[in-house]
Design brief:
This protein is an alpha+beta fold. It has 2 domains: 189 residues, GAF domain (Beta-Lactamase), CATH 3.30.450; 164 residues, Histidine kinase-like ATPase, C-terminal domain (Heat Shock Protein 90), CATH 3.30.565. The protein is built from 10 helices and 13 strands. The strands form 3 sheets. Strands 3-2-1-6-5-4 form a 6-stranded antiparallel beta sheet, sandwiched between helices. Helix 6 crosses helix 8 and helix 9 runs antiparallel to helix 10. The longest helix is centred in the middle third of the chain and has 69 residues. Bound molecules: adenosine-5'-diphosphate. Adenosine-5'-diphosphate binds next to helix 9 and helix 10.
Length: 427
């Protein structure tokens, strides 16, 4: 097809000036199209530009509907998108459908006598279509819809120049529409993913929290039963305790994963009696320690020590360290939890008489997912997150955590917390 923007330019200086103005306009529109990612805004910009540039009463955009195989109106200058949305245009019996199927522009000078004209739209929006110019919206040679200009002003017919203008606009509009659709699909997919992710995190957090109390009850009773049980029954009670211990390990991993998932953690600080915090944690672990014939002792100062901490998070630190002490200490060993002042802060330590940790590993065990034993041969449940989570929580409180150990003899984990010194004597 002859390039309408070039024809006549040399013969008629006025025509040339008009075409230069049109080209400038097209460059401006092109910039706008490529910088607009909001689909509705973009569609409005395209139809108003189309009507304006070819001098038509109205303009509209129809896009393919992949579910039905038809064409649906997504924007029109002469009525709201809501009004048009319910009308589907059949591809086989419409002017737009002809453009969409053939990928070629179509000019209709008198729609009322054209058998392809789909009159339903006119009667629905109370409009009279006389002339139509439809061009395909193509992305990488694939038709995704149709851009139509309707009723050339003053009863005139659409010209080859109009075809060229609308084709140029449509080629840029199609890419912009496709990009905006992709961005909006991506946003929707992201929002759905975030929703699913939140449900998963909430579930992990609630499940790990809610499972702990009943599990402690099971462990407490199983430990008591074991004292009284004799013969074959004691084996079964041991089985219950072993199962409960595994479950405890899984819950610990869930709690630690929840902590990692929650992003930048917020501390909910409150004034709390440190002795009470330690006693509550030890109470939870006593049945399990007893199940392994371990003595769990507390060495707490008499003077009340108040700390300003996020109680649930410090509880996670104690749980993680106590879990390791119980897991890595062979039967008949001893675990001692102590509180002592430490250069302007307070130190909580958990010492065990367990297998110990090689000196070269003492720093690395605080790295995420680091485990001293090979995870294929290890017997202890866990995914290597406990100490890294403990370190992060302690450091958030402005404290520090470290380990000392003699291989084969035991380990001591200590962490520092800020004290509310003025509060010593009260409570
Ligand atoms: P896990 O979930 O595997 O216990 P942690 O981060 O809590 O992960 O611990 C990392 C590793 O440090 C453990 O796998 C173990 O090898 C070692 N470790 C931690 N505490 C002790 C301890 N009290 N005695 C011996 N080894 C320990």
């Amino acid at each position: 097809m002859e390039n309408g923007l070039d024809s006549q330019s040399t013969a008629h200086p006025e025509g040339a000036a008009r075409q230069v103005a049109q080209l400038e306009r097209m460059v401006q529109i092109s910039r706008l199209l490529s910088s607009t990612l909001d689909l509705d805004q973009l569609l409005q910009l395209i139809i108003h530009t189309a009507a304006d540039m070819v001098g038509s009463e109205a303009a509209s955009i129809l896009l393919e509907d992949r579910r039905t195989g038809g064409l649906s109106f997504v924007a029109a200058t002469n009525c709201s998108a809501e009004d048009l949305r319910c009308i589907e245009v059949p591809v086989d019996y419409s002017i737009a459908g002809t453009v969409y199927k053939t990928g070629e522009p179509v000019i209709v000078d008198n729609a009322s006598v054209d058998p392809r004209h789909y009159g339903e739209v006119d009667s629905h929006i109370k409009f009279q279509t006389h002339s139509v110019l439809g061009v395909p919206l193509q992305v990488r040679s694939r038709n995704i819809g149709v851009l139509e200009a309707v009723n050339k002003c003053e009863g005139a017919c659409f010209s080859p120049d109009d075809v060229e203008i609308l084709l140029t606009l449509a080629s840029q509009a199609a890419v912009a529409i496709q990009n905006a659709k992709l961005v909006s699909e991506l946003r929707e997919a992201n929002a759905r993913l975030a929703q699913v992710d939140k449900i998963k995190s909430d579930f992990l957090s609630i499940a790990s929290h809610e499972l702990r109390t009943p599990l402690n009850i099971v462990m407490g009773y199983a430990a008591m039963l074991r004292e009284d049980a004799a013969g074959s029954l004691s084996e079964e009670v041991e089985g219950v305790l072993r199962g409960a211990t595994r479950l405890q390990g899984i819950i610990k991993s869930m709690t630690n994963l929840t902590y990692l998932e929650s992003g930048v953690p917020q501390l909910r600080l409150e004034r709390y009696l440190l002795q009470a915090l330690v006693e509550e944690a030890c109470k939870e672990w006593r049945p399990l320690a007893a199940g392994k014939h371990l003595t769990l002792r507390e060495s707490l100062p008499e003077m009340p020590i108040y700390v300003n901490v996020d109680v649930a998070k410090v509880n996670t630190v104690l749980n993680n360290v106590l879990d390791n002490a119980v897991a890595f200490t062979p039967p008949d060993g001893c675990i001692e939890v102590a509180i002592r002042p430490h250069t302007g802060m307070v130190a909580v330590s958990v010492a065990d008489t367990g297998i110990g940790i090689p000196e070269v590993e003492l720093e690395r065990i605080f790295e995420p997912f680091y485990q001293v034993e090979d995870h294929l041969t290890r017997q202890h449940e866990g995914i290597g997150l406990g100490l890294s989570v403990a370190k992060s929580i302690v450091e958030l409180h402005g404290g520090r955590i470290w380990a000392e150990s003699v291989e084969g003899h035991g380990s001591r984990f200590s962490f520092l917390l800020p004290v509310r010194w003025g509060d010593h004597a009260d409570g």
